Amino acid sequence: MLSEPALNPGVGIGPLLEQFHTENGFAHVLKELLRLWGHESARHQLKRHGYHLGRRDAESSLSASQSDSDDHLRWTQFERALTTHLRAQEFVRHPAGERHAIQWCCQLQCRAGMSMESKINHENAFMWLLSGYVTGYLNRSFDRNFCVSFSKSTTPHAVAFRFLARPSKDPQDFDQDLPLRNFKTGTYASVVSSADDDRIAAQPSLPLKHSILRDGSELAYLVHQVAITDATVLLLGESGVGKSLIAREIQFRSLRTQQPWVEINCAAIPEQLIESELFGVERGAFSGATVSRKGRFEHAHGGTVFLDEVGLLSLNAQSKLLRVLQSGEMERLGSNSTIRCDIRVIAATNENLDALVKAGKFREDLYFRLNVFPIHIPALRERKHEMPSLMSAIIRRFCDKYRKNIYRCTQQAREVLLAYDWPGNIRELENVLERAVILCPDEGEIHISHLGELIRRSNAISTGIADAAASSQTFVAPAQVVVASIDDWADQVIESGQGSLNTIKDSLVKAAMRRSQGNLSLAAATLGMTRGQLNYQLKKLDEVV
Fold first, then answer.
1. What is the rounded distance in angstroms from the CA atom of residue 525 to the CA atom of residue 460?
2. Which terminus, N or C, of the chain has the lesser number of Cβ atoms within 10 Å?
3. How far, in Å, CA of 307 to CA of 313, rounded?
């Protein structure tokens, strides 16, 4: 049985930090943490431990002080704590005029003969523990959220750190602090290891930096609150609203993040195979079952199962699923042996489960088991205010996938995307933006010409701007092709001596109006000007709109 590294919550931050100056430093502790828990869990555990100790020290300082509202006294107590424990120095309060911010320096000694791996582990453990401690101390002392950043310079025998703690302006900093605030003394995540070659251990493919959640939104709050628990979650919403992405977000932020992730589309499995797929099958259970095989739930032991389209499960499969949720027990098809399974279930459906229960097509007891923490995901058309952050996250994800640097969408492209109703929700938005990223040249911007025919079909674009994209026949590297053709045309006009600048401008305005059939917004978008500017040009031409 693997033993966990000793992080005694009863030991204060001072004695703990003294271990960084022993012969082998704290590197051996982090090495063991990494072996048992993995990088992310080790980081979380050390930050949690530091956070708990920081809050405890702050509470002790507050209870000992005469005034709980004296900022100067609280900063002095904080500086004294860091000076005592870290021999910190060069404190600067309110750097660059930032209220409630503080900056300081400290050194971490590296013993001679430490390997490069040990030095890295030594530094990481120190940074994680200290950043958790500072965050916990300041959050409790000032009753507000703080974030900690740092820079470092390394020599062969020491690392010099410059830390900066400031009030959080980004809700994401608060979100990252959620696991720390929910830390309970002496509670650590344990990792179940397995030597099975066929174990499914797929990790979420959507890292936090590409999250589809808008910071500070109600949806983000619900996801963050339930993620750190093991509660069953039911995701509701139209097709394509991003239920699978939200499910992965919950898994990524949970204590099971390093454990198996198994995604099951209940609609894609034939009814006669659903039981064997979910719960496994023993050899000889039916014709063709020549070998015993684990089911999806067995593969997910210790991790999370995502049941998509759960409303389409047969009543027989529903009864088996209910037993797993109630007792954590199941049997493979053709076996009498009971298997215990530790899983978290996240279910999703676009069906009205209440109506299915009333119609007798969905078990009421299973509905209650799944509906522990329901999250309704609104359609994309109902949360247009989240579109900018969604587009940014999706574009970054596809830029990573296709190894491109795309700076932004142009203003016209953003207006088109925001005006569209998105009946296909996030799935449709992903398809459009993936195509746009592919077509957009590297180091460029996404233009309306990259958005394709799909946008043109929207009745919601009342301004008609999107039609400008469809009017362009150039889809691959459009800017280069258009510029080349315009240059050739300009050469011909100059050589003919038949066109002045005003004549050419007037001709372009007339052509745009003819092409748009009198639609001012469309013509203006085609010419790259505002509606007001076009109207001014038309008045000069005495055109009747």
1. 17
2. N
3. 10
Question: Is 323 in the same domain as 364?
Answer: yes
Give the pLDDT confidence score for residue 406 in this predicted structure.
82
Of the candidates 354, 255, 267, the one whose C-alpha atom is nearest the C-alpha of residue 310 is 267
Selection from 456, 392, 19, 4 nearest residue 210 by Cα: 392
Inside any domain, residue 44: yes
Q: What angle do CA 401, 306, 380 make, to 5 degrees?
A: 60
77, 65 Cβ separation under 8 angstroms? yes
| β-pairing verdict for 408-409 and 261-265 | unpaired
The enclosing domain of 408 has a CATH number of 1.10.8.60
User: Same structural domain for residues 261 and 295?
Assistant: yes
CA-to-CA separations, 324 to 206, 334, 483, 524, in angstroms, rounded: 28, 17, 64, 61
Supply 303's token pair: 């991790």
Q: Is 411 within a domain?
A: yes
Tokens representing 234 are 């039911």
Which ranges of the chain have pLDDT less than 50?
Answer: 1-11, 21, 23, 25, 170-209, 459-484, 543-545
Position 113 scores a pLDDT of: 64
Q: Are 249 and 356 contained in the same domain?
A: yes
Q: What per-residue confidence (pLDDT) applies to 178?
A: 37
Residue 45 included in any domain: yes
Q: How many CB atoms lie within 10 A of CB 403?
A: 7
Helix H, strand E, coil C: the string for 250-284 is HHHHCCCCCCCEEEEEHHHCCHHHHHHHHHCECCC
Looking at the structure, tell me whether residues 238 and 311 fall in a common domain: yes
Please provide the DSSP assignment of 387-436 as one string: HHHHHHHHHHHHHHHHT----EE-HHHHHHHHHS--TTHHHHHHHHHHHH
| Crossing angle for the helix pair 39-64 and 71-86, to the nearest 10 degrees | 130
**Residue 190 resides in a domain:** no
- Supply 181's token pair: 């605030």
| Strands (E) located in 266-343 | 304-308, 329-330, 339-340
Measured between alpha carbons, how far is residue 467 from residues 81, 455, 481, 514, 516 in Å? 64, 8, 19, 14, 9
Provide the residue range defining the domain that includes 90. 13-64+71-167
Q: How many residues does the chain have?
A: 545
Please tell me the distance from the alpha carbon of residue 325 to that of residue 177, in angstroms, as a whole number: 30
Q: Helix, strand, coil proportions of the chain in percent (round to 5)?
A: 50, 10, 35
